[in-house]
Every structure is written in C-alpha cells, then in structure tokens.
Amino acid sequence: MAGNDNGAPHTPPPWHHAHGFLGPAHDAHERRTRAVIVLAAVTMALEIAAGIAYGSMALLADGWHMASHVAALGIAALGYRLARRHASNAGFTFGTGKIGQLAGYSSALVLGMIALLMGCESLRRLFAPVAIAFDEAIAVTCLGLAVNIASAVILRGSGDRADSGRAEGDHNITAAYAHVLADALTSILALIALGTGRFLGWMWMDPVMGIAGAGIIARWSYGLARRAARTLLDMLPDPDLPERIRARIESDPETRVTDLHVWSPGPGHTAILLSISARAPKSPDVYKRRLLELAEFSHVTVEVNAGGDAA
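The structure assignment produced for this chain is given below.
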C-alpha cells in the first residue's frame, strides 16, 4: 500500500477499482501445474532414453508426447507466475489475466512442431523397421501410464468450464487436464503396439501407433491454440450475452444501446464497455444495477448520452 508524505498509509479514492483479473483458483492451479511438471519430466527422460535404447518408436512417441506435456505445462507455470507477479502493475491496462492464454497459445505452436517431427519419424520407421526390446519397452510404458494417471488425479476437478453469462475458464488448467488424458491415451496406444509386436509379431504396429500419437498431439495443439486465440482476440465469451444485455438496458423504451463491447480480460471474468443514448438520461449506476441483475461482471464501464431520438 502506498504512503503519503508523512509515511501514513494511503487509501485509494472510492472511485478507484482494481484490474486484477486472475482466475479464482490461480494459486492452486499454479501449484498443481508445478507438481505435474516434476512427475512428467522424470518420466519423459526415462521414456525417451528407453525408447532409444530399446528401439521402440511407440515408446519414443510417448516420451516426446510427455516432453510436449512438460513444455506446455512449463510455459503455463511461467504464465501463472508472471500474471501473479504483475497483477498490480498499472502498465497492463486490463490486468494480467490474459498471460495464461498467451502462454497456452505459445505452447500450442511448439506442440504442433513436435507432432510434425513425430509423424515424420514414424513414417520413416514404417518403411525401415528397427529391432525392439519389447519386454523392457513395455515395462517403461506401464510406468509412463501410471504417471499420466497420477497427473490426471492431481489436476482433476481443476478445469474451469464456461458458464452462461460468465467468461470462459482458465484455459491453462483445462488444457493441462485434457493433455494428461491424451498422454494416458498415447501410453495405451504404445502398449497396444508393443503387445501386438511382442506376441503377434506385428512390427508395423509400432510406427503406426507413433503416427497416431502424433495425431493426438496435433489435434490437442490445434484445439488449445483455437481456444486461447478466442480470448486473445477479445472474442465474445458468450455469443448470446450481448443480446441479453441490450434487452435489459432497452427495457426502458426511451433508452438505446449505441455501442457495446463484451470480452474476457482473464479466466472467469467478463468485462463490458457500454454506451447508452437516453431521452431522459439516468446515472450510470442505474444501468449498472440492471446489468448486475443479469449476471456477475468483473468490469463494467457505462457512458450515458442525452439523445432526443432514443425512443
């Protein structure tokens, strides 16, 4: 808290308001993300080393998928830290709530490149098979699957969902939860490939499952980039919300909405910038109270203008 010239605490004027648009469970999500990073990093190193040593492309795919998991969560954890550290920095006009979405979008681009590399290597091995130490590779893959399940348990219940009249949730933690589920699926695919190769002699299943794993990463990275881009570009968090706002404000026949902007400045937050023309203008607080009856908003700015043709 700032102080005055006498060193006494300075209380902000009542018309001042904060722009801290961090998610309601920001700190908890950050802790969970860090815990999963530790688990995933250890397993990633083991699976990649084992995949190279035992010649399994499916195991390598699972290891690289785990690497993508570590990269994505690492960027997410950094985003959480930066958003928390600069939450009170006035240089961020509408706070730091979007740092997480920027982190998610950046990690999605990295994951897309990893998926491409995995797919190319799997195709190469499909036409040029290599020897695989099945028993050892199966053991390491089972370990990876166990870690994926443990990670999902840690993150379970953390994913935010969009709600009517509210902004979209925390894409970082939602994507992290979806990603560990995708990791678990990739581990299962690797076990199928190794099992059929070990007992049925289907050597071609290993690179095929590697291609499938690359497809999972590509699809996840596209979905994450798309969801994060919606928030970064200030797209509507709820397509029906503007019409409900207009209906609420224009319930007075002498009032018209002349300009309206609705966006999400951070996870779980919705902001509104509203311009009104009224024949008999009222205080902005009157119109704000009408909106509060509609939903809970984190930031509302209302401009009221006198207009004889409002009706």
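Interim note for the steering committee: The chain has two domains: 26-232, 241-306. The helical segments are 26-54, 57-85, 99-127, 134-155, 171-200, 205-232, 241-249, 284-292.
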